[in-house]
Amino acid sequence: MSLLEAYASPRTQRRLLTEEGEFIVDEVVKHWITRVVPTLIIVAGMALFLLMPLLGSGWWLGLVLGAGLGGYGFYRLHAVFMDRFVITNMRVFRVHGIFDQHMATMPIARILDISVRQTFWGQILGYGHFVFESAAQDQGLKDITFVPEIEGRDREIQRIIQRAGLRARMSRDDYWADN
Questions:
Q1: Residue 144, number of CB atoms within 10 A of its CB
Q2: What is the Cα–Cα distance from 79 to 72, expressed in whole angstroms?
């Protein structure tokens, strides 16, 4: 693997326990709304380049500020790209970071509660936020923000938990027979 490849991709596939039969069910890239601000920063940097002729002898200031804003915008855009939330048949994990990568993981069996929060704009634009509660006191995987199609992804996690046999299964007839 080349140095460029190490910083250009979150490489979630290599983090799997393939010898244990783990596979990716869903790999979540943050919602497109998270790319708006970095893109606007890049556009502001380009605007400064266009203003360079109007700055006269201070043209170099437009060059430096434009290059700085553009570089910062591209860095933020790449940081959003490198932030991945992965749902497997055995666990959920998040990988993020460019130069210093951080990975937080939670086995499916340790998930006690999943809260889904959707703001007003999240409901309109189709994203939400997960809040995971586990049996651990201090957990590295708690808030997962800007998840597109969050209802479907929540159902998928619940389905995996159910199939793993971690929650009691009851049919509709069993429920109504007891009540």
A1: 21
A2: 10
pTM of the model: 0.78
Question: Residues 118-133, buried b or exposed e (16+ Cβ, 10 A)?
Answer: beeebeeebbbbbebe
Q: Which residue, 88, 83, 154, 81, is CA-closest to 116?
A: 154
Which residues contact residue 150 at a Cβ distance below 8 angstroms, ignoring those fewer than 6 apart?
116, 118, 122, 127, 128, 129, 130
Tens of pLDDT, residue by residue over 63-86, are 899 999 999 999 999 999 999 999
One-letter-per-residue 3-state SS of 81-100? HHCEEEEECCEEEEEECCCC
3-state DSSP assignment of residue 29:
strand
